[in-house]
Write a structure and sequence with these properties.
By secondary structure, the protein is mainly β. The chain is 0% helix and 54% strand. The protein has no helices and eleven strands. The strands form two sheets. Strands 2, 4, 5, 6, 9, 10 and 11 form a seven-stranded mixed beta sheet that branches. The protein has a four-stranded antiparallel beta sheet with strand order 1-3-8-7, with no helix packed on it. Strand 9 and strand 10 form a beta hairpin.
Length: 112
């Protein structure tokens, strides 16, 4: 089993920034792809960004240039830097490990 704990969410004004963190623990035997997803009220969960074990990244097209994913392999942690936040970025953000394990999510609210 792998446990994921997200942190860094909160209330921010339009144009502000937040940095989310996700720490993985448990039965981590090898590096694997980690990702951030989000789910806004009334919407399906969607991919925000992912990062492979080698550091290759992929983003939702609409978020390129504003969001940046990174990872610290030594500490099994993945980050999501979110800049120039917009009201439509309001959602619960979930960390995902190896397309299998999920965190409980952290709420990001962008107020105008």
């Amino acid at each position: 089993q792998v446990q994921l704990v997200e942190s860094g969410g909160g209330l921010v004004q339009v144009g502000g920034s937040l940095r989310l963190s996700c720490a993985a623990s448990g039965s981590i035997f090898s590096l694997t792809t980690m990702a951030w997803y989000r789910q806004a009220p009334g919407h399906e969960r969607e991919l925000v960004a992912l990062i492979s074990s080698s550091g290759r990244t992929n983003y939702a097209n609409s978020l390129k240039g504003r969001f940046a994913i990174s990872r610290d392999n030594a500490n099994h942690t993945v980050y999501l830097q979110m800049n120039n936040l917009k009201p439509e970025d309001t959602a619960v953000y979930y960390c995902c490990y190896g397309y299998t394990y999920w965190g409980k999510g952290t709420l990001v609210t962008v107020s105008s």
